[in-house]
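Narrative of activities, Objective 1.

The group set out to show that a structural description can be obtained from nothing but a protein's sequence at a throughput compatible with the screening campaign. Below is one input-output pair from the validation batch, recorded exactly as produced.
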Amino acid sequence: MSKTAKMIIDKDFKVSEVDERIYGSFIEHLGRAVYDGLYQPGNPLSDGEGFRTDVIDLVKELNVPIIRYPGGNFVSNFFWEDSVGPVEKRPGRLELAWRSLETNQVGLNEFARWADKVNSKMMMAVNLGTRGIADACNLLEYCNHPKGTKYSDLRISHGVQDPHNVKVWCLGNEMDGPWQLGHKTMEEYGRLAEETAKAMKLIDPSIELVSCGSSALDMPTFPRWESKTLECTYDHVDYVSMHQYYGNRDGDTADFLACSDDMDEFIRTVIATCDYVKAKKRGRKNINISFDEWNVWFHSNASDDDITENHPWQVAPPMLEDIYTFEDSLLVGLMLITLLKHADRVKIACLAQLVNVIAPIMTDAGGGAAWKQTIFYPFMHASKYGRGVVLMPMLSTDTHDTSKHDHVTDVDSVAVYNEEKEELTIFAVNRTLDSDIELTTDMRGMEGYKVTEHIVLENSDLKTVNCAGEQRVLPKTVDRSKMDGDIMTSMLHKASWNVIRLSRK
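Output recorded for this entry:
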């Protein structure tokens, strides 16, 4: 027997315009993300520069507007000068974060060209772990200054006449984490980030800066880290970063699908902390959020530990190659819904990562064609149809308790209204494991809208995965939403991702 839920959607229930950068992603020099992922010279699928065209096509299908680069933990020992200039003269380096060997075959300028190929922009991170203010300024000058200075002319001598004009810069990465090279205390990072930000904005006042926030909700210094560091950086930065990964290590699917509630609470606490600092500083601007690492990550942990401990200093070892299940795709959909609900303050977000490393896109090490993981699809749907204004549904649904979460809603949902196209998209997840739910939606204020399509992602086996040549988890269009005047009735099958599209045209 199915359950029921009710929802009201109204054009006046606005959250915010969606910043397209909420559908960003992340590439780190880690594992096979760059080498064998983006770049594989000699592969018949690669172009004249060695970039895989099949990967380019899949990234373009995801429509990713901004990509964070080059890390991640990698950036805290990144010597950017090694990654530019003639490839044959670039040195190899010991990459300490992941105990790999970095050849620098692909560097800053190559990645910029690849980003152009996928219609995306770079979001650069600077090394505030083992380096500091001067190196950050030199990198910014190399990237953004037109000509006539040491580092802008160096860029030109490398064959890049026009500046890259990178507009978003991360002031380090996860500096609160003791695993980070050059880990800082709150006081140390706050002062370093403040002085770096001041110097960088003297070079290019148009850039936007991201101050490092906490690496996860359960960090022992959260949220004091945000409070203390933002007291230093508030006047000079635009965003604070958030990072969060989840995993179903206990095999408890019901509780796993409740983890997006933790993400929601994490965001709310960071917003409250940012607003506290704003009040304390008597400031006028809001510090917004760059949620620049988020995903499911746990499947590959044991293998990764074995590589770093027992087989170090490989070039592009197969690390962080999580193969995602269907239930993972449901949580990714729930995390996307959570980000959209906070579109008034979450302006940038980066699915971590993009290719081979905890990624929606995979390539076989043997050079076979690229393929789509289960998590590819909810991200693609959100990026494709989630452009416009977020409307907050007034949702009435039963709740359930899990092993670690209370009052978990059976249904989680958000709506995005594209006024220009006269389209409305509802994203909804039924996160119960045993009950279909009939969702009745009052479409007041949306006169004349008709159902265009109802797309679902569902599978009876929650642990099923996709692989090269076999896509067991695929979206399909179903006939499960009906309009009767201003009332829409939709059937949401148990454990399913739903995209309900409506239009006046």
